[in-house]
Specification:
The chain is about 35% helix and about 15% strand. The protein is α/β, with parallel strands linked by helices. It has one domain (about 5-265): TIM Barrel. The chain has an eight-stranded parallel sheet. Strands 3-7 form a two-stranded antiparallel sheet. The longest helix has 15 residues, at about 250-265. The chain is globular, with a radius of gyration of 17 Å. The N and C termini lie close together (about 10 Å).
């Protein structure tokens, strides 16, 4: 089974049709679909992210192909209600985007993590640099994302405090690959996704081999997942990431895990 574990639904009328057409052309069986901050701007797409409500409609209309991932901002007063509402609808994961302005290992958010742990769903957390912009509604107020909140080491403590949660580091922590690999090496409930394009992914094999490959930091390919991040056509992204994974030493059976089998386990698909 071929599963795209990281796909944002753009806030455009054609986004869903484009995704389904891409899945047909790329032979992708299932896509884990999510929105994002509603005040964010996706520069290369020239649009924002769809809200959770639109994601839910898309998943309901195409439940045989799409899976829901609820975007959650733990600072919001209704975050717990949002979490429970969408998980009760059958959403399979939770998306966190710390560059929006929050420190993920804040103790006030522990009740949310406890509920996520109880529900047994993974968290896909943006780690590392972001190029997403935050749009200020007041021209007199300057706002911007802050990638410091998304450093992989911010999740090291959380992985041990909540061992029942599978934490997936989006983009493998780019450009902090070594730190992300180290956190995953130290915590068996931490996974790495290889989503994105350009420097977000091209440096993976280069950095890994430059530091000595598995002789320095062994990567468990059973805890690596593919996601396109809606950056390239899925088939093109699969080809690029397959080449990068071969360069890091992933064999054929390991690539089967990366491109779907591990995602199927985390998302509890039959």
């Amino acid at each position: 089974m071929l599963i795209d574990f990281h796909y944002h639904l753009a806030d455009t009328d054609s986004a869903l049709h484009e995704l389904l057409a891409d899945m047909d052309q790329s032979a992708v069986d299932r896509t884990l679909l999510m929105g994002g901050p509603t005040d964010a701007w996706w520069e290369y797409k020239k649009c924002g992210f769809a809200p959770n409500e639109r994601v839910a409609k898309a998943v309901k209309a195409h439940s045989d192909r799409l899976l829901g991932n609820v975007y959650l901002d733990p600072r919001e007063a209704g975050a717990m209600d949002t979490l429970r509402r969408y998980l009760d609808q059958g959403f399979r994961a939770v998306k966190l985007f710390p560059p929006a302005g929050f420190q993920p290992n804040t103790e006030a958010y522990y009740p949310l993590y406890e509920e996520i742990e109880r529900r047994g769903v993974p968290i896909l957390a943006h780690t590392g640099q972001t190029n997403i912009q935050i749009v200020s509604k007041d021209p007199k107020v300057r706002r911007a994302t802050d990638s410091r909140f998304a450093h992989p080491m911010n999740f090291d403590q959380l992985a041990r405090l909540f061992p029942g949660i599978n934490w997936v580091f989006a983009h493998s922590g780019y450009p902090h690959f070594l730190e992300a690999w180290s956190v995953a090496h130290a915590n068996t409930n931490v996974y790495l996704d290889i989503s994105g394009s350009g420097p977000w992914t091209d440096g993976i094999a280069l950095v890994f081999n430059a530091i000595g490959g598995h002789n320095c930091i062994p990567i468990d390919f059973a805890r690596v997942l593919w996601g396109s991040d809606n950056c390239l056509p899925q088939a093109e992204h699969i080809a690029r990431m397959g080449a990068l994974m071969r360069q890091t030493g992933a064999g054929g059976e390991q690539r089967k895990l990366i491109f779907g089998e591990t995602a199927r386990k985390l998302l509890k698909l039959g």
